[in-house]
Amino acid sequence: MQNQYVKKGEKTMAELSKGAKKIYGEAAFEVLAKAQELERQGKNILHFEIGEPDMETPENIAQAGIQAIKDKKTHYVPSIGLLELRKAVQDEVEKTRGYRPDLEQVVIIPGLKPGIFFSMLTIVNPGDEVIYQDPGYPTYGSVSSFLGAKGVLVPLLEENEFRMNPDDIKDRITNKTKLIIVNSPQNPTGSVMTKSELDDIAELAEEHDLFVVSDEIYSKMTYDTGHYTPTARDEAKERTVLLDGFSKYYAMTGWRLGYMIVPSRMAERLQNFLVSAVSCTAAFTQHAGVEALTGDQSFIPEMMARFKEKRDRIVNGLNSISGFTCQVPKGAFYAFPNIIETGMTSQECADHLLYNAGVATLPGTAFGPYGEGYLRFSYATTLENVDEAIERIKKSFK
Ligand SMILES: Cc1ncc(COP(=O)(O)O)c(C=O)c1O
Q1: Mind listing the pLDDT tens digit for each residue in 77-119?
Q2: Nearest protein CA to atom 14 of ligand 1, as residue
Q3: What digits encode the pLDDT tens for the residues 130-145?
Q4: CA geometry: angle 335, 383, 331, nearest 5 deg
C-alpha cells in the first residue's frame, strides 16, 4: 500500500517527527567538541565549559558499586527503583527538606535530566505555557518546545542577584499556564533563592492551580546560605515535584542516578513512562546510591570548602579584567561575569577567549536570550588553571 506521505513517482525521504525537529541540544557539549578539536591540533585549552565536579566519586561509593557488580546485582529491578534506595531517599528528604514523603512518592531515575523530561511529559500538553528562568538550564526550553508547549521566560536580572522574582512569575500567569520550573541553586548564574521567594512561588501555584517542578541538583552546594524547596508547602503531595540527584555533590555524573518526589497520582503514570523508556535504573548504580546517602558525608563539606576557595579566586580574577564584572555566586560552581563593557557579544567573547586565549567558556546566550552580555565559567578546575586563565584572558585583550 502507498504510504500516505508519498505522491506517486516522487522520490522522497521519510520525514522525521515534528517533535524531533523541535527538540534542541546543549552548547556545553558543542563547545567541548570545539575545544577538543583545538587540542587535537596541539593547542593548550583550559576548560571552564563543562558543568561537572573535577573530583572523582568518593571511594566508599565507588566500592559499593563494584561490590554490587561482584554480587551479581546486574539484572532488571523494579522500574520505580530499589526499595532500599527509595527508603534511603525518604530519610534523606526528611533530613534535608523537613518533611517525610510517603514511599509511593519516591521514584528513582537514571540521572536528574530524565526526571525533567518525564515530569514534563506527565504534566504538559501541547499549547500549554511553561514558565522558567532565563538564563536557565536549556533542557526546560528544549522539552517544552518538543511537547508543543510555549516557553514563557522570566528574566534573571543582575540587580536582583539573578534570583527569580515571584512577581515576575505572577505577571506571566495566563489561563494557559500549566507549570512553573524552578532551579535553585541555579545554573548558569549560581544564584540561590530565598525561602520566602520559593514559598511565594508555591503559593502562586496553589492559587492558580499549577504544577511546580523544582530542580534541586545543586541542593548541597550552597556557600553561606541554606537550601530551600518550594515542595515543602504541599510536601509534594498535590502539585509540586522535587528533583534531585547524585551527579554533582557526590561527583557521580557518569553513574546516572537521581530521584523524584512526586504526588502519588503522578508516580503511577511515571512508572509507565519509565517502563516504556528505560525499564529501570541500573541496579549496581542504585546500590552505590544507598552508600552515597547513608555512608560518610565528609566529602561534601570538604569539596565545598575547595569550591569556595576557587570561587573567590575566579571572582576576584574576573573582576580584575578590564570590561568584566562578576558578582559572588551563592551556590553551585559557576561564575557568571558581565562582559558588556568589552563591546563584544557573549558569543564573540566566548569565541575570542577560546581561539585567542585557549580558555573554553560558554556564552550566556547558551542559556537563553537574557544571557546576552554574560559568560558562564564552570570553576570546577584547579586554582592554577583559574590563575592561568585570568592571565591568558588579560593578555588576549592587550
Ligand atoms: C540545573 C541542572 N539540572 C539537571 C542537570 C543534569 O543532571 P544529571 O546529570 O543528573 O542528569 C544539570 C547538569 O548540568 C543541571 O545543571
Answers
A1: 999 999 999 999 999 999 999 999 999 999 999 999 999 999 9
A2: 51
A3: 999 999 999 999 999 9
A4: 30
- Atom number in ligand 1 closest to CA 115: 11
Instruction: Give the torsion through C-alpha atoms of 301, 302, 304, 307, to 10 deg.
Output: 170
% the chain with pLDDT above 70: 98
Domain ranges of the chain: 18-56+299-396, 59-294
Say which CATH architecture domain 59-294 belongs to.
3-Layer(aba) Sandwich (3.40)
Q: Could you tell me the distance, in angstroms and rounded to a whole number, from the CA of residue 217 to the centre of ligand 1?
A: 6
Residue 332 Cα: closest atom of ligand 1: 16
Superfamily of domain 18-56+299-396 in the CATH hierarchy:
Aspartate Aminotransferase, domain 1 (3.90.1150.10)
* Residue of 50, 113, 134, 250 best suited for mutating to test ligand 1, as the one with most atoms within 8 Å of CB: 113
| Unique residue bearing C-alpha cell 547558551 | 366
| 320 CA distance to ligand 1 middle (Å) | 30
